[in-house]
Design brief:
The longest helix has 26 residues. About 2% of the residues have low confidence. Helix 8 links the parallel strand 26 and strand 27. By secondary structure, the chain is an alpha+beta fold. It has a 6-stranded antiparallel beta sheet. It has a 6-stranded parallel beta sheet with strand order 29-28-27-26-25-32.
Length: 909
């Protein structure tokens, strides 16, 4: 009996505990990811892919299910064209959780649909999408209440963007939206400029056509009882009394107009703000889409924070800004659940000022950035999407790899080019942490665009959402509304001259009357350029379009020259800011998928992927002009040609960049962003990093070219040697000595030296001399063919930088043929991360030019390999460097003959 009573009491206590816990449990605002268990099916139901996850794209899904090979392999950009012409449907089961129905707002949110879709729950149409850059929200609470059952089907019917674009083209029969199609060599699709989709999806001169479709960003079910904080913006003013911070808060009351009343609390983690500014009372009515915006000003003592600096100038100090909403109904005695009326959001911000300065200069206007009132020469590159498939473009590891490679190469700015995507939150977070300023284009490039009411409406929403999302990042330096569209009109790229006034009117309506004021309304903190290139603030007196958007006296310019010898520094006259320039090369021989199938097959594939309308002619021309030319009949033709193309690209971009850096004082040049950092497939392009992450020779060199302290020397138009010391650092004046060493091709030691010493102030360029080195060589009986120059920069007898100058074209020089070998001196493998490090010893019997190492393709067990340097000049008998790879389980046994070595010397006749 006693045991029965004890058991009965235990059951009562257990039930009481459960009841008490139910009473204290509070519902919270939140969201559910709907990113799993999707099915993808084509329109005729011949293909059905199950258990798919979001973010997703049709190409990616088909490859993962092994229905197609990768679109990046062989000529699969052609063989997979059928995918972009079909319609595809995504479905998943939406579980009807009755607990969610207790919330006032239940919002189904698609953060990115690519591109044209109808969205259904069951047979009920929620709405349509037509812009891959826009977030779409649907109130589904009532629908769930009415139709709540075990499972409801959520269906996204995506239509072919290729077909949709073709249909839209008929709408613009009076004023064609040009170009209607890309050049035939692109193997691309037509009319991409009629739709709001990644413009490069339909092919570019560096990329393949991949007209993707899918749900390329997350899908979430959001639920709350009051409001949701969607975005926070941040603007900073440097006042005498301290920092004035204006925080913009974007609230959502579902998808419809509603009254709201409550308080916002503002906190900076680690920073004390005035007590009377921490809390703001809010009362008002949201607009017809449920949005409500409010600004709040905070004041921060300057001594309370550390400044954020770009890479090379200081630390990247970031602070968390926390904003909390509490509905007034929380205080009601009738309110049981408090947390459902609370919304919180935190973003990281930096305290810094960025200004674009355009004061008058000797023959025009300056165009340069100051950060925290320090003029900074912007060094960097142009960023294209990290993948041609949008759903892969936010790959955190790969984006981090590329941005870190930019930071490590001494870059302080990247230009996010206008034919790609507004990048992921992770991209901008990393840019903040790495100190890389972002020149942010809006996603319009190399085209005319529509300006009808429907197009402008979706564009305005696109700009609002994306600027609000990323505006708070300290890395964002400037906005530009498009890439090259102003210069395209002025230079008649697409035969618009006959209707120029009509195209200018459309251009003005889109950029000046729609996009620019939309950005300005959200972000009063930054400059907005109407285009790139542009004349900046230079007044336009000719109906809005500048007479010459490429005028080097104003704004920024894009400069490409394929007619003249890119190795020759005198062809680069400079400008105020060069936001694009560069030269093509081929990816490494071991990167090509058909290298073992014979010369003809590789030639065919390279030609197929060479999308430049000029073909590979400029590459070959520059090699012929400066380097030994490999025989086309040789079995090693492509191995040699690829190597030479990378040497030539590195020399051209190095030469051009160093001219621009040296012209800071003389020409007012304050920026050099070469085209382009990364690639989307293995193909001839202007990139310094191949698709997948392998450095070309250019990227190995660019770290020194962009070094904060650097020595530069090159021949001017009078054949004198101009010698400069570059100092992009702050502090007191420093004494530098530049030593010009004359080297024989046959000896490791210099045969003569010339020295110059000067004081170099902070953050500037000092010209040391224009020296008649050829006269000096003649006096010493040193021939150009047998010698070259090394230029070394010393401070306190310590070498801090070096460079080289050729006295003659390489092909005309008397290079010896040394015996050069590579051997593995030591190796170690970390089993915790599978990183293996090989120390390599490069030995040569004579000076060797552009020593280039490659890992043999047969070594398949090693992944993601990178040499510490490559394409270098070796003027010592022994050079040490390392090779770093991923070696799963640390089992690889690399041998000396697994590493090949090339030099220019070995190719000389």
């Amino acid at each position: 009996m006693l045991e029965s009573i004890k058991f009965f009491i235990f059951i009562l206590l257990l039930l009481l505990t459960i009841m008490l816990n139910q009473n204290v449990t509070s519902k919270k605002s939140g969201e559910l990811d709907l990113n799993q268990f999707w099915t993808i099916e084509n329109s005729n139901r011949t293909l059905k892919l199950q258990n798919q996850s979001i973010p997703s794209g049709v190409y990616t899904a088909l490859e993962q299910d092994q229905i197609i090979e990768s679109i990046l392999e062989f000529k699969n950009d052609i063989t997979t064209k059928w995918i972009g012409l079909e319609n595809w449907t995504y479905t998943t089961m939406l579980e009807c959780d009755t607990r969610i129905l207790n919330y006032s707002e239940v919002i189904l949110t698609f953060h990115g649909v690519d591109t044209f879709a109808r969205i259904y729950i069951g047979n009920k149409l929620l709405g349509e999408t037509n812009n891959m850059f826009v977030r779409y929200r649907f109130d589904i609470r009532h629908m769930l209440q009415v139709e709540c059952r075990a499972n409801l089907q959520l269906r996204v019917e995506i239509r072919s963007s290729v077909s949709e674009a073709a249909s839209l083209a008929a709408k613009y029969d009076k004023l064609k939206i040009v170009p209607e199609c890309p050049p035939a060599v692109y193997h691309g699709e037509c009319h991409v400029n009629l739709i709001r989709k990644m413009q490069a999806s339909y092919a570019w001169d560096w990329g393949l056509a991949a007209p993707s479709m899918g749900i390329w960003k997350s899908v979430k079910l959001e639920f709350y009882d009051s409001v949701k904080i969607r975005d926070l913006t941040f603007a900073l003013s440097d006042e005498e009394t301290g920092w004035e911070v204006v925080v913009g808060v974007y609230l959502e009351t579902g998808t419809k107009e509603a009254q709201l009343k409550g308080t916002l609390t503002f906190k900076f983690m680690g920073i004390q703000i005035e007590t009377n500014e921490e809390i703001l009372t809010v009362k008002g009515t949201s607009n017809s889409t449920g949005e409500f915006f409010i600004n709040h000003t905070l004041h921060i003592p300057k001594e309370s924070v550390e400044l954020w600096w770009p890479n090379g100038y200081g630390a990247q100090k970031l602070y968390s800004l926390y904003v909390r909403w509490e509905d007034d109904k929380i205080n009601s005695v009738h309110e049981n659940y408090h947390d459902s009326r609370i919304s919180e959001k935190s973003v990281r911000v930096g305290f810094r000022t960025v200004k674009l300065c355009q004061e008058p200069f000797t023959d025009g206007r300056m165009f340069y950035f100051t950060v925290n009132d320090v003029p900074i020469f912007m060094k960097g590159s142009n960023w294209i999407p990290s993948s041609i498939l949008p759903e892969k473009s936010a790959d955190k590891k790969y984006v981090k790899y590329l941005l870190t490679a930019a930071r490590d190469a001494n870059m302080n700015m990247l230009r996010v080019w206008g034919g790609g995507v507004y990048e992921s939150n992770e991209f901008y977070r990393l840019a903040d942490e790495l100190g890389i300023l972002i020149w942010q284009d809006l996603m319009f490039a190399c085209s005319m665009y529509p300006a009808d009411e429907d197009f402008l409406e979706t564009v305005k929403l696109e700009v609002q959402q994306n600027v609000r999302r990323i505006q708070h990042h300290p890395s964002i330096a400037i906005w530009a509304t498009n890439n090259e569209n102003e210069v395209a009109i002025r230079q008649n790229w697409y035969s618009t001259n006959s209707l120029e006034k009509d195209y200018v009117a459309e251009y003005k309506k889109l950029y000046e009357e729609t996009i620019r004021p939309t950005i300005a309304e959200i972000d009063s903190w930054r400059e907005i350029l109407t285009s790139s290139p542009s004349n900046g603030d230079q007044p336009r007196d000719d109906d809005y379009i500048a007479k010459n958007p490429q005028d080097p006296r104003f704004g920024d310019v894009h400069y490409y020259n394929y007619e003249m010898d890119g190795w020759n520094p005198i062809i680069y006259s400079g400008g105020r800011f060069i936001s694009e320039y560069g030269f093509q090369s081929f990816p490494a021989f071991t990167s090509w998928p058909v290298r073992d199938l014979g010369l003809n097959n590789l030639t065919d594939l390279i030609n197929h992927r060479q999308h430049s309308p000029l073909g590979s002619v400029p590459i070959i021309r520059m090699i012929d002009a400066n380097l030994p030319t490999p025989s086309r009949n040789s079995t090693s033709y492509w191995q040699n040609m690829i190597y030479l193309s990378q040497v030539s690209q590195a020399m051209i971009v190095k030469t051009e960049t160093e001219v621009y850096r040296s012209k800071r004082v003389e020409k007012g040049t304050m920026g050099a962003l070469y085209w382009q950092l990364n690639d989307v497939w293995t193909a001839p392009s202007w990139s310094s990093i191949e698709y997948g992450g392998k450095f070309k020779i250019l990227h190995h060199w660019i770290k020194d070219v962009f070094a904060n302290v650097h020595v530069i020397a090159y021949f001017n138009s009078q054949n004198s040697l101009d010698i400069y010391a570059i100092r992009d650092t702050l502090g007191s004046d420093e004494e530098y000595t530049i030593e010009v060493c004359i080297h024989s091709w046959k000896s490791f030691l210099p045969v003569d030296k010339i020295s110059f010493t000067k004081i170099v102030p902070q953050n500037t360029v000092v010209k040391f001399d224009s020296y008649d080195i050829y006269k000096y060589l003649e006096q010493k009986s040193f021939s150009r063919e047998d010698h070259m120059l090394f230029v070394n920069l010393y401070q306190n007898n310590k070498k801090i930088s070096d460079n080289f100058v050729f006295l003659n074209k390489i092909k005309k020089s008397n290079l010896p043929k040394p015996t050069a070998t590579v051997s593995i001196a030591a190796s170690s493998c970390n089993k915790s991360n599978n990183a293996v490090l090989y120390s390599l010893e490069i030995s040569t019997t004579r000076p060797a030019l552009f020593v280039y190492l490659e890992l043999a393709p047969e070594v398949v067990s090693l992944k993601k390999c990178q040499f510490s340097k490559n394409g270098f000049l070796q003027f010592t008998p022994i050079q040490m460097l390392y090779l770093q790879c991923i070696d799963i389980d640390c089992k690889s046994k690399l041998q000396n003959n697994d590493i090949t070595l090339q030099t220019i010397n070995s190719l000389m006749n």
